[in-house]
């Protein structure tokens, strides 16, 4: 149940945050600081530092109606008295990536277990509909709820807390602003396999049919070197010219992502159109082996173009061998996000059904900060977001990079929370801060939850179905990467719960989740898994 907080967070005694090795945040009363003394972000590259050891920053603001938002004091209009920092802060940049889940399902469908290093739980969770209430205007709605994990799962004294953020639904295609898209296509030798360059060409032809006459497209290809196949060209009267440029692409030699990205941004700057969505779209298996293969240094070289012209990077991953971590790093630093396309059905979903969410922006540099109340909370764990953490004191520093979010997106953060025995009152207050893409003004929105709203049994019918889906996805991801979340069910039980939820929700994406869990269980047990099909991801929204 969602609770609005009508009061400003009061002064609280000191803030404590621990950063544990392995990347999972675990904060406990009386804990000491991190051994990593770094608390300052690399403000040029947008690097995300570890969670701050002192938990600095200002308290979360009053919650207001989501359609109105709350303009920050830095933007201009209200003064706020100095107060002590709230206890137990958790701060991270928003993330709408889903590629980790899509690639995991593709790998399992091929009869292999994914590499644990490529498992990011937040991308599993964010692949599924959550049903949050949408804001009426621009910005975010904030929902906070949860449930007790329960006796049967080995986590009887733990609860699962869900922080949900949602943007307004995407407008009809006819109402979106025009787009100027530069496609940077990998034509290296590794793209010759099934489900790679052929699928990319099919995807681009689908998109050519879908884009409007007032949209513009540029095409760059790269292997050992980069080549401009088509300068920025309006769609009106030129669709056949675009198709010809796509059809002429054939696999070549090495994978010089550096050359492709640099040429792509050059073409995007040349074809930049004011007042439209200017975006570079990288389509690749991201197996860089020539030129600079460091994502940070590649993005540094195009940093001025990225910032001055507001050009964002959208990564579309393909192929059974896929450089997931490299692609994710590139798009994080490029103010964008990633998805994974496994077949023509998923390509149509990404480039037709979900197109506005992938090329438009509702919010820039969006960050979330969750303040836990030490009077009710003994411990908490943030599930995932390890490489999206922001120092607590940088929450309201708008020069520190956050996440970019489009229309129709939802972002979910799950926490495992241990309440104090007999605790009653506020558990946590969640605040999201973002910049308006056009005006660059900062806004905030908050929501909170009390102990009575998370008393239901997660699996016993007392929790919302969509919270249960999020829990299954998170537990699945944590199991695949060898984690130890409180109350984690065995894979067989997770598969059964997913199957039951798929029937209750009539959601094909949840049914595919059940299939993936079953495949993982079979591989773990040394039995023959169900293979093939279901290579796409979950849903936006």
Question: Would you write up a description of this structure?
Answer:
Residues 1-28 form the signal peptide. Pfam families: VWA (PF00092), vWF_A (PF12450), YfbK_C (PF12034). Residues 67-80 have a biased composition (Basic and acidic residues). Residues 180-355 form the VWFA domain. With 541 residues, the protein is an alpha+beta fold. It contains 13 helices and 17 strands. It has helices spanning 99-109, 121-125, 197-210, 239-247, 257-270, 295-301, 303-309, 324-333, 344-353, 355-359, 465-480, 491-505, 508-525, and strands at 25-28, 70-71, 89-93, 140-148, 158-167, 179-186, 216-222, 226-234, 277-284, 312-317, 337-340, 363-372, 377-382, 403-405, 410-419, 426-435, 442-450. Strands 2, 3, 12, 14, 16 and 17 form a six-stranded antiparallel beta sheet that branches. Strands 8-7-6-9-10-11 form a six-stranded mixed beta sheet, sandwiched between helices. It has a five-stranded antiparallel beta sheet with strand order 1-13-15-5-4, covered by helices on one side. Helix 11 (465-480) runs antiparallel to helix 12 (491-505). The chain is globular and about 70 Å long. The chain starts with 24 loop residues before the first strand and ends in a 16-residue tail after the last helix. The relative contact order is 0.20.
């Amino acid at each position: 149940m969602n609770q609005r907080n009508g009061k400003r967070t009061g002064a609280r005694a000191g803030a404590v945050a621990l950063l544990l090795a392995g990347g999972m945040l675990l904060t406990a009363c009386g804990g000491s600081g991190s051994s990593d003394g770094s608390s300052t972000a690399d403000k040029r590259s947008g690097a995300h530092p570890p969670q701050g050891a002192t938990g600095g920053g200002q308290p979360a603001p009053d919650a207001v109606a989501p359609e109105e938002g709350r303009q920050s004091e830095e933007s201009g209009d209200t003064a706020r008295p100095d107060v002590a920092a709230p206890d137990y802060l958790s701060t991270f940049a928003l993330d709408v990536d889903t590629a980790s889940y899509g690639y995991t399902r593709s790998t399992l469908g091929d009869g292999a277990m994914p590499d644990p290093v490529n498992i990011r739980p937040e991308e599993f969770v964010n692949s599924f509909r959550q049903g949050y209430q949408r804001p009426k205007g621009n910005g975010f709605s904030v929902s906070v709820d949860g449930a007790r994990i329960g006796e049967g799962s080995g986590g009887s004294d733990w609860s699962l807390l869900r922080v949900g953020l949602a943007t307004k639904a995407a407008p009809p295609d006819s109402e979106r602003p025009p787009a100027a898209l530069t496609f940077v296509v990998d034509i290296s030798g590794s793209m010759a396999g099934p489900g790679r360059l052929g699928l990319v060409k099919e995807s681009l032809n689908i998109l050519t049919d879908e884009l409007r006459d007032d949209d513009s497209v540029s095409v760059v290809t790269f292997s050992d070197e980069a080549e401009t196949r088509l300068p920025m060209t309006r769609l009106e009267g030129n669709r056949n010219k675009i198709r010809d440029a796509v059809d002429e692409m054939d696999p070549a030699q090495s994978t010089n992502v550096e050359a492709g990205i640099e040429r792509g941004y050059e073409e995007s700057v040349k074809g930049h159109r004011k007042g439209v969505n200017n975006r570079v779209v990288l389509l690749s298996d991201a197996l860089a082996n020539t030129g600079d293969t460091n994502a940070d240094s590649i993005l540094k070289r195009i940093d001025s173009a990225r910032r001055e012209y507001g050009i964002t990077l959208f990564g579309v991953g393909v192929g059974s061998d896929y450089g997931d971590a490299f692609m994710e790093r590139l798009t994080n630093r490029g103010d964008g996000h990633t998805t994974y396309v496994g077949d023509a059905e998923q390509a149509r979903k990404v480039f037709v059904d979900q197109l506005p969410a992938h090329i438009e922006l509702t919010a820039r540099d969006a960050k979330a900060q969750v303040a836990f109340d030490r009077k009710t909370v003994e411990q908490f764990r943030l599930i995932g977001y390890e490489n999206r953490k922001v120092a607590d004191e940088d929450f309201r520093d708008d020069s520190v990079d956050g996440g970019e979010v489009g229309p129709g997106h939802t972002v979910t953060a799950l926490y495992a929370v241990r309440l104090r025995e007999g605790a009653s009152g506020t558990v946590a207050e969640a605040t999201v801060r973002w910049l308006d893409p056009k005006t660059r003004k900062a806004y905030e929105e908050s929501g909170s939850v009390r102990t009575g709203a998370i008393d239901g049994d997660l699996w016993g019918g007392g929790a919302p179905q969509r919270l249960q889906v999020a829990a299954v996805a998170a537990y699945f991801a944590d199991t695949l990467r060898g984690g130890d979340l409180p109350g984690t069910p065995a894979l067989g039980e997770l598969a059964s719960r997913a199957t039951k939820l798929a029937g209750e929700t009539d959601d094909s994406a949840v049914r595919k989740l059940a299939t993936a869990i079953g495949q993982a269980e079979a591989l773990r047990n040394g039995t023959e898994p169900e293979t093939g099909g279901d290579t796409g991801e979950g849903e936006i929204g």
